[in-house]
């Protein structure tokens, strides 16, 4: 049987490592998202990496600590969906196909890059929100059963 001090020390070590890894995972998720149009990656992968950082933090420090971010996550998901849809509808209102990335402001290459970035931003925000919300939903089942 482990002594009380060794359990406290292991808990402290885990919390220290996770608090460091949280920031590293969020920065890496943003890196994958931003460089997604130049290399493999993008909004979906970056969103999942950031959501996994939120889930890891919630599993380590407890759901009660992170449950306060749930309304914020739902808002972030709605904003991501709004960015995605408004990027596509902007092209449609200008007489082009949905998500053709035509804004008639810049040259074609700049419009394409801007359009891809906005779509990937919307996807990343929505995926991050959805994956983290799924974790909180599954974690709340534990409390409903007891």
Automatic annotation (TrEMBL):
PANTHER family: NA(+)/H(+) ANTIPORTER SUBUNIT B, NA(+)_H(+) ANTIPORTER SUBUNIT B. It comes from Anaplasma platys. This is Cation:proton antiporter subunit B. Belongs to the CPA3 antiporters (TC 2.A.63) subunit B family. It is a multi-pass membrane protein. One of its GO terms (cellular component) is plasma membrane. It is found in: Cell membrane. Residues 14-131 form the Na+/H+ antiporter MnhB subunit-related protein domain. It comes from the Bacteria. Pfam families: MnhB. The keyword Cell membrane applies. Keywords: Cell membrane, Membrane, Transmembrane, Transmembrane helix. The chain crosses the membrane at residues 12-31, 43-62, 69-94, 114-136. Its main location: membrane.
């Amino acid at each position: 049987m482990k002594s009380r001090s060794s359990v406290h020390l292991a808990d402290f070590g885990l919390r220290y490592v996770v608090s460091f890894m949280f920031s590293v995972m969020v920065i890496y998720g943003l890196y994958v998202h931003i460089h997604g149009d130049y290399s493999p990656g993008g909004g979906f992968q970056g969103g999942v990496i950031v959501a996994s950082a939120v889930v890891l933090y919630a599993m380590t420090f407890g759901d009660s600590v992170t449950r306060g971010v749930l309304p914020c996550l739902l808002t972030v998901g709605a904003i991501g969906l709004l960015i995605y849809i408004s990027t596509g509808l902007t092209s449609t209102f200008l007489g082009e196909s949905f998500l053709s990335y035509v804004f008639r402001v810049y040259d074609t290459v700049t419009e394409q890059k801007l359009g891809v970035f906005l779509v990937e931003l919307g996807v990343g925000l929505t995926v991050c929100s959805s994956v983290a919300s799924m974790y909180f939903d599954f974690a709340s089942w534990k409390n409903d059963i007891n």
